[in-house]
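COURSE: Structural Biology Practicum
ASSIGNMENT: Worksheet 4, Part C
STUDENT ID: 0417
INSTRUCTIONS: Below are two proteins. For each, the amino acid sequence is given first, followed by its structure token string. Answer the questions at the end about the second protein only.

PROTEIN I
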Amino acid sequence: MHRRSSIIGAGTVLGLSLLLGLAISNSASAYHSYLLTVQQLKAGLAKAADRGTSPAAKGFVLIDVRTPEEHASGVIPGTDLNIDYRQIKARHREIGVKLDDHIVVYCQSGHRSNIAAETLADLGYTRVYNVSGSMNAWMEAGYPVDAPRR
């Protein structure tokens, strides 16, 4: 089943708003995942930097759902995990969060991360965010790219 992601604006998903300092909405719809812009993610990561780099300190987990080879070429700073989007269903327990914790996913362009976000939502995760444009948009914005953690 295909679902479209709703774009985040001002509204009622207060949890990520407080954690990332973003304005978020959760309209009453069938959408399971939400879109974050790279600007919103960058702002959220900057706010989280004061609290620490662990997912618990940041208030969200950031997952690169690209292949391991793509992941090795560089990541968005603050990336916690690399789980290939094709393995997300089998490996979702590795994320190590509760179903209502915040999960942010990205890939190269946003397509695979949308699939991963929908898969996580289908598994019962309720606060899943896909980075619109993903790594391409991040780099086009001129934001830094880190070497992956080993």
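PROTEIN II
(use this one for the questions)
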Amino acid sequence: MKSRGIVLSERIARNAFYSFTRKGGTIKRNVAYGFKTPDWSGWDWKWRGAAFSAPDPKLRHKIRSKLIAYRFAPLYPGFWIRPLHSSEPVEEQFSLFIESGHTVLMEISRIPEVSVPNLIRIWNLDKISEIFAEGIAVLEKKLDESSGYPPEKAFIEKMNVGGYIIGILSKDPLLPEMLLPVNWAGKRLRDLFTQWESVINVLSEPLIEKIFQRGED
């Protein structure tokens, strides 16, 4: 992380102290945003569509990667969709692609082709459900094991297990409940992760206090 400009290090005597750079702070905020479930209670079945065209393979990959990061899914080649929610800053994030003429965003009232079976296929929800089950099993096991961890072990678990679960959470499309399969485990996984993280943070705090500066901007 240091080599990519995410953290700063400062050595005083034999001790190394670390803090997040401006770039690192931005990444932290983006990660936090990425796992926040929108309030879909008033959703009116409007969708955001993203049509894109780019001859350059690298540019196409960049656009697709951005669409995946913001949990769009391909309805047709070159046309991706996501339920419309005003809290998601899609226009801002795609502004460069829009200005260059490679992407067009639009609002759509209804999409006849969209049904729960189609959504399961489009967002690959069956496969995600299997991955969620694996993550839940890991967290349940870790919650049983972690109570006696020393700070060093807790910190290692925080980085390794935490990174693994965040990778799983990033696959959650965060769709309105009425569009999800029955017994969708996304909330269960997030709740377990929050519970485990609160435990592991307390256990690892003595070590973290030694190696990380407190005052992050």
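ANSWER KEY EXCERPT:
Q1: The CA atoms of residues 134 and 168 lie 9 Å apart.
Q2: The chain is about 50% helix and 15% strand.
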